[in-house]
Specification:
This protein is an alpha+beta fold and about 325 residues long. The chain has helices at about 10-20, 35-45, 95-105, 125-130, 150-155, 160-175, 185-195, 205-220, 265-280, 290-295, 315-335; strands at about 5-10, 50-55, 60-70, 70-75, 85-90, 110-120, 130-145, 175-180, 225-230, 235-245, 245-255, 285-290, 300-310. Strands 1, 2, 3, 4, 5, 6, 7, 8, 9, 10, 11, 12 and 13 form a 13-stranded mixed beta sheet that branches. Strand 3 (about 60-70) and strand 4 (about 70-75) form a beta hairpin. About 35% of the residues are buried.
């Protein structure tokens, strides 16, 4: 059966074509949903024009969301996205992905640059099957822990003693008041933004995107917004979501001037307790970034990759390979 491939330059048109296939009800992973791609396209679009490719092959469908600039294409993604890849639904995903790759070529793309991708992602193999050269470069890491069947006390007993002792001491001396909200609250959100602005972190990349994301997750019942207060001043804040058995830590920050009280650690304890004992999650995902403190809270790490691909059937793709090889040679010679 020949696959049906369609290119979209408008997400409303794509939604009419997809129906509910990319809605929350059908997609357990939030970064596979059309609503997420809408936020990225609206607030943090990559360079170029939207290019969404859909293929249908019997019972299988696949989508790939890109931004096209000339003969190059980039992931329709941003720094908030913890995992990027094609979206596959049912049936023979391999055949559907092959058709998506043909759609990429049909759009005039000869070089692809995608990040962050999991090592198990099937797209690189689909590209190679269809005449592309791929380079999968490890660029980051994802930390997580499986807690299914454990109580918080079980989990906490497995943590390093230094972490447990710090949390216990600071909880006693700091006298923090902890709030964990599932609803959207204007004051709480203002407190979150204030903490973030007074933290060690760089300025928020897109406050508008974050607010719309939080409002949507609150409406869906998945939001867990944690705040730690000291004498009515918010000193630490964390943004989690809990859905389909997975708690995801999206953002965390504490006021730099309250660092010696370890308010982030104290707040984390209560959010972990909530996720494990009340939400009964199977896994907690700490997002990407190989920060040393994550090792104290997590057990597993998985590499994340950047995919660069060149179309070997395209003159521009071959030129791109040549330029890439030349750049590597120059860098190697400079380092000698």
């Amino acid at each position: 059966m020949a696959a049906d491939v369609k290119l979209f330059r408008d997400l409303d048109e794509l939604e009419r074509d997809a129906g509910t296939a990319l809605a929350r009800s059908a997609r357990p992973q939030m970064f596979d949903r059309l609503d997420w791609f809408r936020l990225v396209h609206l607030f943090t679009p990559p360079p170029g024009e939207l290019l969404a490719i859909r293929s249908k092959n019997g019972a299988a469908s696949a989508w790939l969301f890109l931004a096209q600039e000339g003969s190059e294409a980039f992931a329709l993604s941003n720094w908030y996205c913890l995992r990027f890849g094609p979206v596959i639904d049912g049936g023979n995903g391999e055949a559907a992905l092959d058709a998506v790759v043909r759609g990429v070529r049909q759009a005039g793309v000869s070089r692809i640059f995608l990040s962050m991708m999991g090592g198990e992602d099937p797209l690189p193999a689909a590209l190679r099957r269809n005449g592309w050269m791929t380079r999968f470069t490890r660029t980051n890491v994802n930390w997580r822990i499986r807690v299914k069947g454990k109580s918080f006390e079980d989990y906490w007993a497995e943590r390093p003693s230094k972490l447990r002792n710090t949390a216990r001491r600071r909880a006693k001396t700091a006298g923090l008041r902890i709030e964990i909200l599932e609803r959207f609250d204007e004051k709480a959100w203002a407190d979150y933004e204030t903490v973030y602005g007074a933290s060690w972190k760089p300025a928020e990349g897109s406050p508008e995107l974050m607010r719309q994301f939080v409002e949507a997750e609150a409406a869906a019942g998945t939001l867990r917004l944690g705040l730690a207060y000291m004498e009515d001043q918010a000193v630490a804040a964390q943004l989690w979501t809990v859905e389909n058995g997975v708690a995801t830590i999206h953002k965390l920050a504490y006021r730099e001037d309250a660092k010696h009280y370890s308010p982030g650690t104290v707040l984390s304890v209560e959010l972990f307790r909530r996720a494990i004992d009340i939400d009964k999650v199977d896994m907690i995902d700490f997002g990407y970034g190989d920060h040393s403190y994550k090792r104290d809270w997590m057990d597993e790490s998985a590499p994340l990759y950047t995919l660069t691909a060149y179309d070997l059937r395209s003159v521009r793709g071959l030129l791109g390979i040549a330029r890439s090889a030349a750049s590597k040679l120059v860098a190697r010679l400079r380092n000698q």
